Amino acid sequence: MISGSIVALVTPMQEDGSVDYEILHHLVDWHVGEGTDAIVSVGTTGESATLGQEEHCQVIRRTIEFANKRIPVIAGTGANATSEAVHLTKRAAEMGADACLLVTPYYNKPTQEGLYRHYMTAADAVDVEQILYNVPGRTAVNMSIETSARLSHHENIIGLKEAADDSADRVAPLRQLCGDDFALYSGNDDSARQFVLNGGNGVISVTSNVAPGLMHQMIAAAIAGDRESAAQFDQPLQLLHERLFVQSSPIPVKWALEQMGRIGNGIRLPLTWLETEFHEAVREAMQQAGVIQE
């Protein structure tokens, strides 16, 4: 089971929006060195919605190549068309992804039965470990605990990234219904510590793009049940958890990484660069986390 601090990696781009593979290689190396436990390639934070299918697959393939088995790579292969999700999951499996992360279909608002059939279709079609991803704030559909539990019995569905507002409170009922072998990951950085202390296996994180070492330490302490140390590691991250969402993600996190000299200033429309009025708020959070100097 993959556990710990898993980065929902941004896709670095040049100013014209083209993917910067040289910088992607540097980011992967940095995360390995900082102790990040796994990488999600081209998840929603990686701007999956604006990458074409071939480009999407190319970024996954190169990330796997750059990681070179030093760290697991989870491919983001979700889509709001079931056929597209199956296609992307097959491609990722062929490229050697360690697992795939499939977000709930966005915009079309399927029923719980529709969600169940969507995920079962992908799990039946592709023999690779698959992680469900519930993020109702971005998709307009909230997968119920009961639907997650139904899906957990499929041998290829091995975990859930839970990003509902009450995600930390969902751990206990999910654990009871899904069993100890089913991986539970927080999708909310601000409550990830409590999520893991409640019995979760880790976090798939935006914050870890900017502060990977500290996130790794915090989640490792929480997994060990060390509440005091986990709180100490998490304290300087609190503003970052909040302010990396002052505008739609990944707008703030890409700006933060550019300020750190880690990436360029490329982002895909319809997303735009962080507006000036938010610069100081994000910079203050970065200073508190110790990732830039005052």
Rounded to an integer, what's the Rg over CA atoms?
18 Å
Number of helices: 13
- Helical fraction: 40-55%
The CATH C-level class name: Alpha Beta
Which series of helices and strands comes N to C? EHEHEHEHEHHEHEHEHHHHH
User: Which regions are unreliable across 5 or more consecutive residues at pLDDT < 50?
Assistant: none
Biggest sheet character: 8 strands, parallel, barrel
Shape annotation? globular
Q: Which class best fits the helix and strand makeup?
A: alpha/beta
Strand percentage: 5-15%
Terminal Cα span = 39 Å
Entry summary:
This protein is an alpha/beta fold. Helices cover 45% and strands 13% of the residues.
What features would you describe in this structure?
Helices cover 45% and strands 13% of the residues. It has 294 residues and is an alpha/beta fold. It has a single domain (4-226), classed as TIM Barrel, CATH 3.20.20.70. An 8-stranded parallel barrel has the order 1-2-3-4-5-6-7-8, surrounded by 5 helices. It is globular and about 50 Å long. The mean pLDDT is 97.
